[in-house]
Amino acid sequence: MKHLLFAAGLALAATTASAGDNGLMRKDSALGVTETVDAMVTAMEGAGITVFARVDHGAGAASIGEDIGASQLLIFGNPKVGTPAIKDDPAAGLYLPLKVLVYEDAMGGTKIVYEEPVAILGKLGGVSEDAAYLKTMAGALAKFTDAASN
């Protein structure tokens, strides 16, 4: 039953994706923050991606008496994809693994935001903006965030 509800939620989710000038991709999710992150974790683990951490910013804020709403940062990656970037430019290790933020906006909607890999790593001198791994990273980010927002 739980899986049917999850599938129904995914089917009903509204997706709006937009890229700003700063390289951030933003999407809407009809699910709550926790459910959206859970859906991404399920999709990532199913694809063999390592989830390194799930940071609960909302809980952190609550621990000091503040309320920022629900907000979670998911940190994940795959050494087969990230290692070539780090070999091309060791400073890429500063930006990897990849991250996705899911938060509740002021209107109560759930937002997904991440930075495009070319915007993150393309500014490094040793990383070519047309490197195949950048396309792989971008495709994975789109796939996993779409799985959580569609």
Automatic annotation (TrEMBL):
Give all residue intervals belonging to the DUF302 domain.
55-117
Spell out the InterPro entries in the cross-references: DUF302, TT1751-like_sf
Q: Which residues form the signal peptide?
A: 1-19
Source domain of life is Bacteria
What keywords appear on the UniProt entry?
Signal
Name of this protein = DUF302 domain-containing protein
**UniProt source species:** Marivita cryptomonadis
**Lineage from the top down?**
Bacteria, Pseudomonadati, Pseudomonadota, Alphaproteobacteria, Rhodobacterales
